[in-house]
Specification:
Elements (H helix, E strand, L loop, with lengths): L9 H14 L1 H6 L4 H8 L4 E10 L7 E10 L2 E6 L8 E4 L3 E5 L1 E6 L15 H7 L13 H17 L2 E8 L5 H14 L2 E6 L13 H8 L7 E6 L4 H9 L4 E5 L11 H6 L7 E5 L5 H9 L3 E4 L1 H7 L6 H6 L5 E2 L11 H21 L11 H8 L1 H6 L17 E5 L11 H8 L5 E6 L2 E5 L2 E2 L4 H19 L14
Parallel strand pairs: 1-4, 1-5, 6-7, 7-8, 8-9, 9-10, 10-11, 11-12, 12-13
Antiparallel strand pairs: 1-2, 2-3, 5-14, 14-15, 15-16, 16-17
The structure holds zinc ion.
Zinc ion binds next to loops.
């Protein structure tokens, strides 16, 4: 275990030492898993051959295969094809599985894993009152150790469900110590995480002044799993700050929030302020003209379809984007109100777009947009997510030379056999129970349906303790069946 024993690499020894210096031993000694450590041990051979699976490469040149092999050397994909010869490789039998790129969630707030499902009936107003932004919301009460354990458990949950990359719009940077703790948890998780540096809440916020320190301390190399980005409300100052440091920018735009959708959006476009470095989150309420403006300026849209539908963000903007040459990627947003697994996101997007087009057809409309196919939404959940995170040179498809972020889904289980259509099985049939094996940069982080090297009992205990602390500060009902608070 990472905390109980020796660090698993020189890099992690350094991470651990720096972290102890910054935040004190309390957090580090309670830190958790060591998934990457175990994965290193599991990957004794630098070559791994995934043999005989149904391989969906999402690489246009390679195509998809009923049956093929994937060869991994170190952290990269070396080859994809039929009957690959691979001397000295550790062979993983992929028979009965679908092998595809790891899913990419382009907008999440991982620290809120501590409060998952707390607002199953919640609307945006409930969320802002209780969870984030409101003067009496929970986020200001998060201590560094709560940010750490929340971020870590959120990231591990994503890995467990086959999500290998998460863009975390980290709204719990309540102080520099919070940022250190959060980044430390992300580094430990073994997930690929875009840490989109966002303001936290409370009196000790040092956003964005602490940015240079963070960049220097943690992000001197881009050749690592956790990389930096910037996030804030869409306005000229925020965009200028992110660009000053050459960072990609994430920004929420929500139709139903006052002052969220910039009134001068078109003007910003005309001035050249809207560029290809920006991911617009939700983008609900966007007109066709505004969607086209984002497409023309090379921007990206992250659609959190299930959350937008349940929390009153406005109608998901998927069709408006598609009509204007813009393919959105998919995101989970907040676990306080919805699951963060990609099956939920893919299925919601698939169903919503088809429901809307089907209804128009029933009403007699002609020349309708194309119905989304199951394969289309898997592409949104993989290669499109990689493009939107500007990581498509590294991940998003099973392309030789890219890093090996790979998921193996069991298709020989009671919910999937006999396998008749791989795309349909994933989007219309499967759930997280089908996630058998997950690999990030060639390291196995989940195998045979279980996270590797994660002490779940300990994680559960520490997450529960942190939740209890925050719930106590908020005077939330202790009972899990009490629904007296709005949104519960
Ligand atoms: Zn969000």
């Amino acid at each position: 275990m990472w905390n109980d024993g020796k660090p698993y690499s020189a890099h992690d020894q350094m991470v651990r030492r720096d972290f102890l210096k910054a935040t004190g031993a309390a957090i580090a000694t309670s830190a958790l898993p060591g998934a990457a450590h175990e994965a290193l041990a599991a990957n004794a051979s630098p070559r791994i051959l995934l043999k005989g699976g149904c391989v969906l490469s999402f690489d246009q040149a390679l195509g998809d295969f009923d049956k093929a092999d994937v060869l991994i050397e170190g952290k990269r994909i070396a080859a994809v094809g039929r009957n690959l010869a691979a001397a000295n490789a550790t062979v993983i039998d992929a028979t009965g599985t679908i092998v595809l790129p790891g899913f990419i969630d382009t907008h999440h707030h991982l620290y809120q894993a501590l409060l998952r499902n707390i607002q199953g009936n919640g609307l945006l107003a409930d969320y802002f009152r209780d969870i984030a932004n409101g003067p009496k919301s929970a986020t200001p009460f998060f201590r560094p150790q709560d940010a750490y354990i929340g971020g870590l458990s959120g990231a591990l949950r994503s890995l467990d469900s086959g999500v290998t990359t998460i863009a975390d719009v980290s709204q719990v940077n309540n102080s520099p110590e919070h940022s250190d703790a959060l980044i430390h948890g992300f580094q430990q998780s073994g997930a690929r995480i875009v840490y989109a540096y966002t303001s936290g809440a409370g009196p000790d916020v040092k956003w964005p002044q602490d940015l240079e320190r963070l960049l220097k301390r943690y992000f001197s190399s881009s050749d690592q799993l956790v990389t930096p980005a910037f996030s804030g409300s869409v306005n000229r100052d925020m965009l200028a700050t992110g660009r000053k440091y050459g960072m990609r920018i994430w920004s929420h735009i929500v139709e139903t929030l006052p002052n969220s959708f910039p009134k001068d959006f078109e003007q910003m476009g005309a001035e050249g302020v809207l560029r290809s470095d920006t991911v617009y989150i939700h983008f609900t309420g966007a007109t066709p003209k505004q969607a086209k403006l984002v497409a023309d300026t090379g921007g990206a849209v992250s659609a959190a379809v299930p959350i937008e539908m349940t929390m009153r963000h406005g109608m998901p903007v998927v069709q408006v984007c598609l009509d204007n040459g813009l393919t959105p990627s998919l995101s989970s947003d907040v676990e306080t109100s919805m699951s963060a697994d990609m099956f939920t996101m893919m299925r919601s997007c698939f169903l919503l777009q088809r429901a809307m087009v089907n209804e128009r057809s029933i009403q007699g409309e002609k020349d309708l947009p194309k119905l989304l196919t199951a394969r289309d939404v898997i592409a949104m959940a993989t290669i499109q997510g990689a493009r939107d995170c500007a990581l498509d040179k590294k991940v998003g498809s099973l392309t030789p030379g890219k890093e090996a972020d790979i998921v193996m889904l069991r298709a020989d289980t009671i919910d999937s056999f006999p396998l008749n259509n791989a795309y349909g099985a994933i989007v219309t049939g499967m759930d997280t129970s089908n996630v058998d094996t997950v690999m990030v940069a060639g390291k196995i982080v989940k195998r045979h349906g279980r996270l590797v090297g994660v002490d779940l009992a300990r994680l559960r205990k520490e997450a529960t303790q942190a939740r209890d602390y925050i719930a106590g500060k908020m005077n939330w009902p202790i009972s899990v069946i009490d629904s007296s608070t709005p949104g519960r």
